[in-house]
Amino acid sequence: MKFVKWILGLIGLAVVGCLLFIWLGLPALNSYQMDGVLKFKGLQANVTIVRDAKGMPYVRAENLHDLIMGQGFAAAQDRIFGMDMLRRFSAGRLSEVLGKTTMGLDMRQRTLGFRRNAEKWAAILDAKNRDYLQAYADGVNAFIEQCGNDLPLEFKLMGYKPEPWTIEDTLAATLLMSWQSSANMRSEILALALQEKLGPEAAKALYPININPDDPDPALTLEDTLPQIMPQSGVALSRDPLLRRMLERGRLEVGSNNWVVGPSRSPGGKPIVVNDPHLKSNVLPGPWWPCGLISPDIRAVGTSIAGIPGIVSGRTSHIAIGVTNAYGDAQELYIETIDPKDHGRYMEGDQSVAFTIINDAVRVKDPEAPGGFTKHELKIRLTKRGPIISKIFPVLPQDKAVSVRWAAYETFTSTIAMGDLLLAKNAQQVSDAIGENTYLCLNFVFADTQGNIGWRVGGRLPIRSQGDGTMPLRVTGGGDNWVGMVPAAEMPQAMNPKKGWLGTANHYTVERDYQHHYSSHAAPGWRYRRMIEVINSKPKMSVDDHWALMLDTKNMMAARLAPIMAKALAGSDDTKAMADVLAKWDFFDRADSAAAMIFQSVYRQFAYNTFAEKLGPELTWLMLDNMYWWQERLAMMVSKGQSPWFGQGGMDELFRRSAREVLAELGPKLGNDPAKWKWGELHRLIFVSPLRREGTGRDLLGGGNFAYPGSQETLLRAIYTYSKPYETDVIASLRMVADLSDNEKVEAILPGGVTGRQFSPHFHDQVPTFVDGGKDYWWFSDKAIADNAQHELLLKSE
């Protein structure tokens, strides 16, 4: 028996040893050169890449060309697999490596035309901008060509090698990022579905309400916005999986908070810029790639999307900048009319016009086919407004041709504009660069070391003579409802306000007297209201104060609505326990809060019950998952206390019914005493690898499963999808506080890591600090970079 135990013990030790050897050896399977010397073609002088303890690269060069080339090389070291997936996604080429499961997505992307239009844009760039983008591409390609042994393990697992990077790849990725941060096509599709279900007039009762908390005269009441028309029966909504995928939040769809305070509100006497863009960031290593860029004329640290040069959020020696989604409506759907006599043509009023036809094809990986691929033909029809998308979104009317139009495709210039941010010396130059940008409809807040602060919306918006972009517009004549573009000088903006600060939280930022239609799709103002409450309460805020505000979980919507909910629930013995918990709540969505769990679950069920009887389950969930569409309106209905949508029993009975359903659903999971529930028991943040997002192996390859505070309505953003509660999928993709009086560092943290290489120690090493609300640093001064250097690679010019 002792002998058997001895043998089993040896076997156990051997197994543990093998597992330990494998685990410790895994990083070596997916590593790359970070030290030593590499001979590098195309450089004008030597470049060094220093990396700190978290793997963040700091590129040092003697000129702009070499600096951007070095940035491209470092980005490829860390993220070339993600970059390749991004360009394949934007170009409609995922099926070449992933097979038929992504064929429909590729057809959609090719129809929308990101790569097609990137090629048009590349053709008109001036020499300065072409050289800038080509330098980046050359750096990426130097890695691909000269460091073949360092290619990520992911390519070996997928069985292919990356192609050379091109200017068009960068521009297509830029357009994809812009589309997912500015277009409202999913809202227009939802509007069309609601109109089909309810009829045109009744559907307007559910159209979005957009209120700017800074507007001196909001003047919106329930009676102004809620026609007393009960829904009628209508057409059932298609269960189209592509539609559901379209209506889901995309990886680059930007939410976010940002703010900037001027020198009078800063202990250091210089402005502070704060940014935490909200994205679908639980897929490791996260969307943003951080780097430092240093040359005789430039000193910058910040983040970009790997594949796009420069920085989007960060600071230089002269300025700091942060971004949120502006949600300006730069896109529109049109219901075209096919010529009944010739289906190859469409009608412009009484005139028949031929479609422009693009014959394309999707290549699909198929090991059994000759050459390893099959081709699936795709005929893309273009009107003068844009491509016909009906066939790729079957929910759209199939007896009509629905086209999509986007301002970015119509406003290309010879510049990419945002590259000028690296060289900007003051806030006015930042504003000018944003004004030249015609494609990124983002809220930029910025500041300079001279004490100036500003906010400006980038991109271009159409000036409409008909329609407001909420509902697809039926083409009835030969004219154009886009009669021009809003000039750069008339895009929303502000500089050096008297209050001493500026901020955005995806809310409706323009006031009622703004001369152009801006959007009908914006976030409710809850986060911005909390921002106002805290910043206005303190004459000055330290860097730590700003960091704490990014982590703030006060739910301003709950502060308004939870007392109403509690009063309703107190009216019944079986829901009174919930009411008692809500009555004592301070309205902070903490992970250990019972009240937060009660409010979120009951309000979710209440929202569903309000609309489901008239809309049906499918359409109700599609609407509720598009939270910006309905949240402000429902809150107004609850504040008023009455609405025909609440049914014959009224609002209070609907709250009680919803609470009973929640008790029945959550009691078996959390226990029958709601006072002992905890928000974080169900509200989880799970970090996953792109190689295994679900199923066996997810936890092994991922970055952990955490109870998480916050919600859709809090500054610490933690969004869950209403139709699939309560797992968080949109969070801060970056937290950054850039104090222009601190020339040593920028405080920042990512919800993942620097590198996209599975098993690398820097794939998710920042996760624990991020979840705990802690901070790390981007080093800024030469001394700070040197003191924290862990690796140094010399790229030696040949």
Characteristic terms for this protein:
11-stranded mixed β-sheet, single chain, 798 residues, alpha+beta, 36% helix, 20% strand, globular
Strand % is 15-25%
The count of DSSP E runs of length 2 or more, i.e. the number of strands, is: 31
Tell me the overall shape.
globular
Q: Into which percent range does the helicity of residues fall?
A: 25-40%
What does this structure look like?
This protein has 798 residues and is an alpha+beta fold. It has 25 helices and 31 strands. A hairpin with a 7-residue loop joins strand 26 (718-720) and strand 27 (728-732). The chain is globular and about 80 Å long. Residues 2-24 and 218-253 have low confidence and may be disordered.
Overview in brief:
The protein has 798 residues and is of the alpha+beta class.
Secondary structure topology:
Layout (H helix, E strand, L loop, with lengths): L1 H28 L6 E5 L6 E5 L5 E4 L3 H28 L3 H4 L4 H10 L1 H11 L2 H20 L6 H6 L8 H16 L2 H14 L1 H4 L18 H4 L15 H7 L9 E5 L10 E5 L1 E2 L8 E7 L4 E7 L7 E4 L2 E7 L5 E6 L8 E4 L2 E4 L1 E10 L7 E10 L18 E6 L20 H10 L5 E7 L4 E5 L4 E3 L8 E2 L7 E4 L7 E3 L5 E4 L21 H10 L7 H8 L5 H14 L6 H8 L10 H22 L1 H9 L1 H14 L9 H21 L8 H4 L1 E4 L10 H4 L2 E4 L10 E3 L7 E5 L2 E5 L5 E5 L17 H5 L4 E4 L2 H6 L3 E7 L1
Parallel strand pairs: 1-31, 3-7, 11-20
Antiparallel strand pairs: 2-3, 2-31, 4-5, 4-23, 5-28, 6-27, 7-8, 8-9, 9-10, 10-17, 11-16, 12-13, 14-15, 17-18, 18-22, 19-21, 24-25, 26-27, 28-29, 29-30
